Amino acid sequence: MLIARLLLVLALVPACAPDDSPEPVDYWLPLQCGTRAEVAQGNFSDFSHNGLASYAFDIVIDLDTPVVAMAAGEVVYVRDENRPGDPCHEGGDMSCFDLANLVVLRHGDATLTLYKHLNQALVTPGAAVERGDVLGLSGSTGWSTRPHLHVMRMEDCGADYCQSIDLEFVEAGVPSMGDFVTAAPCP
């Protein structure tokens, strides 16, 4: 009888243990509600979305357009040093790669999102943000051929640029080059 009770208790222990798996996260377009934009480069492009950036998107938007958080998270990296007059502020070649202004968020599913080529970042590391909060203003800093926003979801490798992973937007799915996307309407 004692053995039967012990087996019953042991069988119930895993059911009572806390669930440590990451929470699922929905990702929305990084644009203010109702904004429409063209995808200039999608996943696995021949130009620059390969290797670490295989699952990235380039979204064409005007300079100084607000860029918003795709999901709630914590700001973990900010680079905001490239200013007007700097050699890579208006875009440049591959030598400008590490000079783009950017923001990186960590989300509840233990992944990161990257927002790159900003004219200006408007958040600081450690800040908590909600989906739709403004992170910065769009630009063309770093390795860039025109004003746009480079976004991707990444593994958390402990740095500001990690291996990209699948990213599907709630309101646009997985867009391809040349597709137009529209951020969800305002509530």
Quick recap of the structure?
The protein is mainly beta and 187 residues long. It is 8% helix and 29% strand. The N and C termini lie far apart (60 Å).
What do you see in this structure?
The chain has about 190 residues and is mainly beta. The chain is about 10% helix and about 30% strand. The chain is built from 1 helix and 11 strands, in the order αβββββββββββ. The protein has one helix spanning about 1-15; strands at about 35-40, 55-60, 65-70, 75-80, 100-105, 110-120, 130, 135-140, 150-155, 165, 180.
Structural class, by secondary structure, is mainly beta
The helix count comes to: 1
Q: Count all strands and give the number.
A: 11
What is the subunit organization of this protein? single chain
Q: Give the averaged pLDDT, no decimals.
A: 88
Terminal CA distance: 60 Å
Helix content: under 10%
Order of helices and strands: HEEEEEEEEEEE
Shape: globular
Low confidence ranges: 6-10
Q: Main sheet?
A: 11 strands, antiparallel
**Which strand-content bin applies to the residues?**
25-35%
Determine Rg (CA atoms, Å).
20 Å
